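Box 3.1 A note on notation
Throughout this textbook, protein chains are presented in two layers. The first layer is the amino acid sequence; the second is a token string describing backbone geometry. Keep the layers aligned when reading.
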Amino acid sequence: MLLGSEMEDLTTFGSVMRPNGTAYGQGNSIQMSTEGMAEWRGAGLGKPTGPGAWKYAYGGVYTIATHEKWQRVLNVYTAGEYENHANGNYQWKLWEWKFCHSPFLHFSLL
């Protein structure tokens, strides 16, 4: 579902294993519905959660949105989570980053 519209997605995401056992990846996604299509591009960090299963945290931007109601995705940064299971099922969640209008920026150390 994207902004209240039922849709299907087609995503290509490639990852490179890192020495600490995590993976860095980049990808593209096309979301299609009867109302239009949108294209997303981003990158993320993943870790194994079991045999054949992974979980990623990622961020990115929409580069194209053809339907009028989807136009707002062109003005935000997105953050999300993706999880796949050994049986081939997957799920993803996506949030829009809301900018703070405060003159001060707040940072936390990792």
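Residues 8-96 form one domain. The longest strand covers residues 36-50.
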